[in-house]
Every structure is written in structure tokens, then in C-alpha cells.
């Protein structure tokens, strides 16, 4: 039996085919990617909650040094209220899909912790000490850094402290220089201290970035 040899002449040029494929892909992406916004927002909110609850600060309130130093009886009530406010500030803005040469791009921007967030949580995490001093412990943790925050008081460990402590730990007592643990100044411990741009909330969001990227990549690929 004789071999049959044939050839195909492409009427449409390869470059034209490539352009048509890209055009079709862009059309699909412009529809599918924006539709993912609610799902992406849900992922972001879930990860924020996860990583804040894994933060050293959050865990230290479970009978750790922060709960003892700050004398907070029910820290998680305020922390969870703060978390609820925080996740409601999360917004996801989708960037338009575009073509640049042979490349297709796009993306999204996640925003949280707006400038008024600290005002929104300013009434949370505060109590009045036995001596009548207001102790805004959550505000200290989020914004005060390790500067002096309560003059004329310090933390005492041992001795009679457990007789008077709200938490069964150390107690703030009169002192001429300040308040603290092992020092004579009233500061949040450096390993836990925070400022408006660098605190346990913002650090948790930085820590969650790799997992967020992985989850979003998996989500987008599943829809293509």
C-alpha cells in the first residue's frame, strides 16, 4: 500500500491565531476574575482572624505575661470584638485585566486597618483599676509602643501581690519612677509593643501573606 503524503497550508498566520487566543482568554478573565472578589474577601477575612489568634500577643492573654502585666480579667471579649470590627474594614478592589504585548496581567488590592480603625476600637479593652486609674490596655498594645504610659506605678511580682491582683498575678503599686516588670518605667514589653503602623494586628497581616498568596493562586487557577 502506498504512503499518502499531504500538507496543510495555514491561511491564517500564526501571529493572528495567537492574537485571537489572547483576545478570547482576556474576554474570559474579564468576566471570571471580578466575580472572585467576594470569595477573595472571605479568604482574607478568615486568614486575618486565624493569624491574629496565632499571634504571640493574643496567646499571651491566655494566662501569659500580658494578661498578668495588664491585669485584664476578660481580654478575649475585647480582642474578639476588635477582630469583628477589623474584618469588617476589609475591602478587596480588583484591578482591570489587561494585555501588554504577549502578556496578560491584572490583580487585586486588599485594604484593611483604615486610619479610623483605632478610633473605632478606642472604647474596647479598658477598665478602671482598684486605685481608680483608667487602664486602656488595648490602646496601649496597639499604639503606645514601649513609651512610658502610666507614671508612678509599676508591677510587683511575688510577696503580697497575689492578695490584691485582679488576675492572681502581679499588681500595679505606687512607685516614684514608673510601671513595668523588672524596670522602673511603665512600658509594654518590647516583644509585644505596637504603634499604629507596626502592632500585633499589622504584623499578623504580614505573616499571613504567603498563605494568602497560595490560596488566591489556587482559587484563580481553579476557575480558568
Condensed summary:
The chain is α+β, with helices and mostly antiparallel strands. 45% of the residues lie in helices and 14% in strands.
Key descriptive features of the protein:
single chain; 224 residues; alpha+beta; two-stranded antiparallel ribbon; 14% strand; elongated
How would you describe what is shown here?
- By secondary structure, the chain is α+β, with helices and mostly antiparallel strands.
- The chain has a domain at 14-125 and 197-223.
- Helices cover 45% and strands 14% of the residues.
- The chain contains ten helices and six strands.
- It has a two-stranded antiparallel sheet with strand order 1-2. Strands 3-4 form a two-stranded antiparallel ribbon.
- A hairpin with a 2-residue loop joins β1 and β2.
- α2 (37-53) crosses α9 and α2 (37-53) runs antiparallel to α10.
- The two termini are 46 Å apart.
- Residues 174-185 have low confidence and may be disordered.
Oligomer: single chain
Structural class: alpha+beta
User: How large is the count of helical segments?
Assistant: 10
Q: What is the 3D form? A: elongated
- Per DSSP E runs of 2 or more residues, the count of β-strands stands at 6
| Gyration radius from CA atoms, angstroms | 28 Å
Query: Could you name the ranges where pLDDT drops below 50 across 5 or more consecutive residues?
Result: 174-185
The helix fraction, in percent, is 40-55%
What strand order characterises the main sheet? Answer: 1-2
Give the rounded overall mean pLDDT: 77
β-strand amount: 5-15%
Secondary-structure element pattern, one letter each: HHHHHEEHEEHEHEHH
Major sheet details: 2 strands, antiparallel
Terminal CA distance: 46 Å
Amino acid at each position: 500500500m502506498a504512503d499518502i503524503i499531504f500538507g496543510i497550508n495555514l491561511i491564517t498566520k500564526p501571529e493572528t491565531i495567537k492574537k485571537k487566543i489572547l483576545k478570547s482568554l482576556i474576554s474570559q478573565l474579564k468576566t471570571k476574575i471580578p466575580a472572585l472578589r467576594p470569595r477573595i474577601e472571605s479568604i482574607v477575612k478568615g486568614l486575618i482572624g486565624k493569624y491574629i489568634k496565632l499571634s504571640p500577643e493574643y496567646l499571651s492573654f491566655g494566662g501569659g505575661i500580658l494578661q498578668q502585666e495588664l491585669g485584664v480579667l476578660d481580654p478575649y471579649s475585647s480582642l474578639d470584638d476588635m477582630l469583628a470590627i477589623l474584618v469588617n474594614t476589609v475591602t478587596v478592589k480588583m484591578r482591570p485585566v489587561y494585555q501588554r504585548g504577549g502578556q496578560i496581567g491584572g490583580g487585586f488590592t486588599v485594604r484593611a486597618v483604615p486610619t479610623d480603625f483605632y478610633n473605632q476600637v478606642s472604647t474596647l479593652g479598658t477598665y478602671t483599676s482598684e486605685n481608680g486609674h483608667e487602664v486602656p490596655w488595648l490602646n496601649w498594645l496597639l499604639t503606645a509602643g514601649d513609651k512610658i504610659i502610666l507614671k508612678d506605678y509599676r508591677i510587683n511580682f511575688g510577696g503580697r501581690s497575689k492578695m490584691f491582683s485582679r488576675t492572681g498575678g502581679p499588681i500595679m503599686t505606687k512607685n516614684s519612677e514608673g510601671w513595668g516588670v523588672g524596670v522602673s518605667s511603665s512600658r509594654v514589653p518590647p516583644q509585644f509593643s505596637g504603634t499604629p503602623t507596626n502592632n500585633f494586628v499589622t504584623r499578623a497581616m504580614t505573616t499571613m501573606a504567603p498563605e494568602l498568596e497560595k490560596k488566591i493562586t489556587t482559587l484563580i487557577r481553579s476557575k480558568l
